[in-house]
C-alpha cells in the first residue's frame, strides 16, 4: 500500500498561525512533482509545538487540499498512548490514508512497553499504521523482533526506520512479510535501503526537490539502477545539508529562501546560524533552487 516517496511536510507559519495559503502552494508542488504522498504533523512539521486544534486542522486541510490525488499519512504519535489514540482516531475520521506513530519518547518504554503501546492503538483504530523508529530523537530503539511481532497485527502496515543501521533494517525485512512496507527515514540511505528490500522513503529533502526524490524511487523500481545511482549521488550534498542543524531548521530556511514559506519557526527552534545560512544559500544556488543575486 505504501511505496515510493512520501514528503515529510513542513508546517508553514505566519505571525504564529498556520499559513494555510502557503500550505496549499506546497501541496500543489508535491502533487505536480508526482510524489506518492505527504506526511503532515511529523517531526519536520514541528508537531511537538502544535496545539491539538492546529494538529487536527492541519490533517483535515491536507486531506482536503490533496483531494485524493496523493496519499496522506498523518503524524499522530506521542509519548502518551491515550493521546496517540485520540489523534489517530481523528486522522481516521477525516479520511487519512495512514497514520505515522513515533515511538514514545522521553519516558523510554521497554520493548514490551513499545509492543503494548502500538497494540493498544491498533485495537482502537482501523487506519493503516506506520511505526516510526528514530532513536536519535526519542532515546529508544525499537528492535527488529518487536517490529516483527507488531507486523502481525492486522492494521500495522509498515515502519519508517531511521536508526541509520542497515543491518537492523535488513533484519526487519528478513523477519516481516513482503507486504510490510519498510520506508527509509534517512534521505541519505534511500538507495541502500531500496537495494535490500525497502519500499520507499518519508523524505525531508523532497520538500525542496520532490521530482528528483520521487524519480530516484521510480527508477529503482523500474530497474534503471544507473539513473537511480546518479540521482542518489546528486542529492547527497542536499541530504546532508538538511541536518546541518536540527531538522526542520535547514529545510524551512531553504523553503523561505526559495520564496515558498515565511521563515518562521516555533521555539525552542531558532533561526539558522549565520555561517550555516551562507553555506545553505550557496548550495541552493548550485542546485538552481534560488538565483544568484
Task: Explain what this protein looks like in three dimensions.
This protein is of the alpha/beta class. The chain has one domain: Aldolase class I (TIM Barrel, Alpha-Beta Barrel). It is built from 12 helices and 10 strands. It has helices at residues 20-33, 52-66, 81-93, 111-124, 135-138, 144-151, 166-175, 190-195, 210-221, 225-241, 249-257, 274-286, and strands spanning 4-8, 13-14, 17-18, 37-39, 71-75, 98-102, 129-133, 156-161, 181-184, 200-203. The strands form 2 sheets. An 8-stranded parallel β-barrel has the order 1-4-5-6-7-8-9-10, surrounded by 6 helices. A two-stranded antiparallel sheet has the order 2-3. Strand 2 and strand 3 (17-18) form a beta hairpin. Helix 4 (111-124) packs parallel to helix 6 and helix 6 packs parallel to helix 7. The protein is globular. The N and C termini lie far apart (44 Å).
Amino acid at each position: 500500500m505504501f511505496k515510493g516517496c512520501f514528503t515529510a511536510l513542513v508546517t508553514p507559519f505566519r505571525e504564529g498561525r498556520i499559513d494555510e495559503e502557503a500550505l496549499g502552494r506546497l501541496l500543489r508542488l508535491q502533487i505536480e512533482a508526482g510524489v506518492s504522498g505527504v506526511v503532515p504533523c511529523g517531526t519536520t512539521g514541528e508537531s511537538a509545538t502544535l496545539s491539538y486544534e492546529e494538529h487536527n486542522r492541519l490533517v483535515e486541510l491536507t486531506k482536503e487540499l490533496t483531494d485524493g490525488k496523493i496519499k496522506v499519512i498523518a503524524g499522530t504519535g506521542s509519548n502518551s498512548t491515550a493521546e496517540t489514540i485520540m489523534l489517530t482516531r481523528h486522522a481516521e475520521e477525516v479520511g487519512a490514508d495512514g497514520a505515522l506513530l513515533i515511538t514514545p519518547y522521553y519516558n523510554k518504554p521497554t520493548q514490551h512497553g513499545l509492543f503494548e503501546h502500538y497494540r493498544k492503538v491498533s485495537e482502537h483504530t482501523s487506519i493503516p499504521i506506520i511505526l516510526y523508529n528514530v532513536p536519535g530523537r526519542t532515546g529508544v530503539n525499537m528492535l527488529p523482533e518487536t517490529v516483527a511481532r507488531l507486523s502481525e497485527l492486522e492494521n500495522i502496515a509498515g515502519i519508517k526506520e531511521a536508526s541509520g543501521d542497515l543491518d537492523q533494517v535488513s533484519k526487519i525485512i528478513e523477519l516481516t512479510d513482503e507486504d510490510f512496507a519498510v520506508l527509509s527515514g534517512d534521505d541519505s540511505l534511500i538507495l541502500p535501503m531500496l537495494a535490500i528490500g525497502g519500499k520507499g522513503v518519508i523524505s525531508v529533502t523532497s520538500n525542496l526537490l520532490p521530482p528528483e526524490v520521487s524519480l530516484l524511487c521510480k527508477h529503482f523500481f523500474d530497474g534503471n539502477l544507473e539513473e537511480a545511482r546518479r540521482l542518489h549521488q546528486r542529492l547527497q550534498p542536499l541530504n546532508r545539508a538538511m541536518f546541518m542543524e536540527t531538522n526542520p531548521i535547514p529545510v524551512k530556511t531553504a523553503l523561505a529562501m526559495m520564496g515558498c514559506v515565511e521563515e518562521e519557526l516555533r521555539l525552542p527552534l531558532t533561526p539558522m546560524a549565520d555561517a550555516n545560512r551562507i553555506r545553505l544559500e550557496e548550495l541552493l544556488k548550485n542546485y538552481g533552487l534560488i538565483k544568484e543575486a
